[in-house]
Amino acid sequence: MTHPTEHSLVQGGRSAALATACVRGGVAAGLGLGALAVLVTAAWISSPFPDSGPGGVLHVAAGLWLLAHGVDLVRTDTLSGLPAPLGVVPMLVAVLPVWLVHRAARDTLDPGDDSDRPRPSPGGAVAAVAGGYLLVAAVVVVYSESGPLPAELISAGFWLPFVVFGAAGAGVWTALGRPLPGQRQAAAALRATGLGLVTLCGGGAVLAAVSLAWHAGEAQAAFTGLAGEWSGRAAILLLVLALLPNAAVWGAAYGLGPGFTLGTGALATPLGLAGDPAVPSFPLLAALPAEGRGTWTHWAAVAVPLVATLVQGWHVGRTAKGWPARDAALTALAAAWGCGAVVAVLAAAAGGPLGSGRLSAFGPVWWQAGAATVLWGACVGVPMTLAVRAWGRRALRPKPLPVPAPANANAAASATTPAPVGAGAGAGFGEPFDLEAQPEAAPDAPSDGLPGVTPGVTPGGGQASPGKPAPGTPVATAKATAPAPPPALDLDDDPGYEPYDYLPAAWESSPPPDPKA
């Protein structure tokens, strides 16, 4: 009979925690798939002309769920009979599965009220949650192969793990308190990257909203022309809402410079719309710029990346006031690279193929948008960082303190007058002062230079000692050349003072006794 040890109990607790995390991942995948299935089923029920049964509805829901993870789909029921790819991700729909994975990973490490339950390591939590989620995703991919929207296997093998592991890692990071790297440069670069992304995407959303309001008539005509029933219009409205984040990324790419493609051979940039665009009728696409060369209204779109990089550089410059210029510039450059990498991922998700032929390229090109973001950050963000840093260091310089002037000229002159040099004790500068050797000056003795008085001779006819002031020396001069002695301590008036006799030390012999005593 074996008894359970503490080590085996701990290992068993961790294994149970990993199993629980795996179940959490599977539940998160099921919740996202179920929510989309309910939405598609409601649209199918409300449609006056349903063209498929419940099986087709579930296949459409499975395809839409995979598309929300970035997986490209293949439409088989086309008019030409040829399969057509579909790769534009409705980014608002993608928020649901990403949030579910994030919450599952966060709750795995968050103890909550039960602080005694075993918890896995951060890496184990990410792997367990992502593993459970991907198991359900694999089943959905296999199920979609028999429907009208099968998944492209290569795209599924790349984007599904990328999105799931990224969301799970973000959830674990949140559970740990969102720690930043220990190096101050890395932490500042991450903060600046987030600030630049928010500013850039917000500016892109403003550009898209302004252009849509400018072309409101065309957008309304496209909306009413696609469907006449309220159920169809409600479905189109939901699709427009799901593609609003895509429009924001398109606006950001337009302001960055590379713009976006409108089919093969057509490109829209602030300089103008070149080529023959292949644009289907859709309300959001009515906000596209007109054909021809761009005007100042189109050129004003570059203000979006300009403001974003200026804000990014300002943040790094404020943080790097006390850093060397090289560290500040490298931090700003790292923030530019981080922002460019995220913009490239967003551009890849916001665009993609809408069909075959000319519609095989639609939306911003991911590598061009990312490279333009890095270029903006290097050309504008780095100089802005150095300028803000230099201004901050100028404000932090200490001001020189004023030097106090001497009280009066006579005091300065008397302080610099050297003492008379002589041969006697206390005559030289720095020698001990001999108070007993100094004769008292007569108050009414004539000074040198007066009639009847020989310089260097005392009034009594004696010769003045060299190195000692003569009795006729003025009192002010004597006080300037010799410091006053410190006052002697008078202990006779102290009631606590009692004189005592000499006491021999232990090694000294006692004095002989007095024979007369």
TrEMBL record:
Chain spans, region Disordered: 422-517
Pfam families assigned: DUF6350 (PF19877)
Protein name: Integral membrane protein
Domain of life: Bacteria
Species for this entry: Streptomyces gardneri
Key word Transmembrane present: yes
Low complexity: bias regions: 473-482
Keywords: Membrane, Transmembrane, Transmembrane helix
Transmembrane intervals: 21-45, 57-74, 86-105, 125-144, 156-176, 188-214, 235-256, 296-316, 328-350, 365-388
InterPro entries: DUF6350
